[in-house]
Amino acid sequence: MKNKLKLRKIIVILFCILNLIQNVSADDWVLGAAQFTYAKQTSLTSTQEGLTKVIPSLILEQISVGSKHLPGAEELYYRQNQSLKAKRTSLFLQLSKEIKSRDSLLLTEKNPAKLKKLIKAEDEKIALIQKEIEENLVEEEKLLNERKTEEEAAKNQTDITFNEKKGSPHKIVTSENVVLYKSSYDALLEIDSLSGEVTPSEIEKACKSAKINGLLTGRITSYGDYIMVNVEIRTYPGGSLLGAATDIGTIKNLQSITSNLVQELMPKIANALPVELYFDIFPAEKKSSVILSLDGVIYNPCPEKIIVEAGLHSLEFDCPSSNKIAFTYDFSDNPAFYISLPFTEKIDGQLNLYLKNQLEGSFYSNGKNEGNTNENYFTSISINGNPVIGQFISNEKQKVLKEKKVTLEDGSEVTELVEEEGEPYSTFFYIPKSALVEDSNLLVNVKLNDLNEMINKRRIWMYRGYTAFVISVPVMMIANGMAQSTVNAYNSGLEDSSTAIFWNTAKYITIGTTVASAGFFIYELVRYLNAASGVLPVNAYPVSEEKIPHFEKSVPSEEESETSEETKDSESEGINIENTEITEESNPQ
Question: Whole-angstrom Cα distance, residue 431 to residue 366?
């Protein structure tokens, strides 16, 4: 019995530790929002009612899903405190159950000896639970003392060793991923209130039920078309104020208002040290004309330095007459980042891309269809200064073998391989930056092959050449050794000349065979590598007008077309004109 109680105690302690760890270093930090309210207004118009839902949704929409949140010391305290309370409540319910079970034994058990034994067992269970409750209370008091120590140290500016930038001493605090409530920016938290005004306890209860860690609340004040939006974000459990933001604007410019609010709230949500971004723009004369869009917020012109919260950010740099630069990066590992921005001149124009072979199909580049092959088998490609990776898709389709069930006359089914049309042949082409010249002529050698079949075929022949080479080497070595030994034996008078001549001839034959098989293997290896490189885009290269290939499409003449039409008409009537001779004798007149 004692061993069982010890085992149970160990399991309970491990459960508590895991529960605390889970609450302290959770993977996700759930952010939600409640419907905003209007200041000093009881009845709202339909527009005002819509704003109370649209503004929090717009704020949540602009908050990056890849953002991080670093829990602060107060937030961690409330989490651990809530975990201890939940555990203590569970232990109290267990205690109540065990006491009731012990009391019921007095009414149900008639055997005194057995009753005494059962009561003793229940008393041990009750004592263990009571001890766990006492330990829980001690842990809560210890947690409270730690918090007081941290507050006093902060007031007195006492040096405390931190393993992280924020958090309790000697505790490793990890950042958590910010996720939206119900994974949707349209889902707002509904808070039930007994009175007209929502109380903090009701908000706490609603957040606990919805498992929300951070809640956005707001108040709107309007004067005509102008509105002022005050937003607060609090962490739960505890309801501690994490940050607040205010912005003023017109109803027609809600996107700008919410963008400004998000820019103020994001550093407070991240709860981490800010990151400095330095921009090095060249050529230098373009610095004054570069426009930066940072997570949807416009900076005109782009500053040399900007401070943002650590985390994932999307940056877009636009400059007149230059190619746009855009990227997304997680700025979290260093306190400062230096970003080099080389702007290149924008080239807006077209060039002519010719096919070396007479193929029918369509050209695709820059994510759009550039057109089909015309009578000269070329198309015009739009260029903007960046290298082009395009694709040519032929009208000809591949032939594939597919298994198909065929029903025979006797009713049985057999599986046969039937040749059907598959996907069309296609190949990629690449136009390097050096070839991007407006109105220039480029030539691309497009080859339509079944690459998989060709690569497999070349690989098989390469293996055959390698096998032949490997087999021929030991045969050559044996023949060479036998030739050498027989020649030595002949010179010593121990072997006749015919045997020496035979092995000497065999030596040269095997040497020739090995050299031939080695050459065959190298040849097939090169062919295999060429076939394997067929999956790479084909480079387009400039070509002069004299070397542009010209193809003539076979257009039937008028006489041939009339003859073909007469043939079709006669065939439809069942008459064969070629085998019917009309003469004067056959004419009934």
Answer: 11
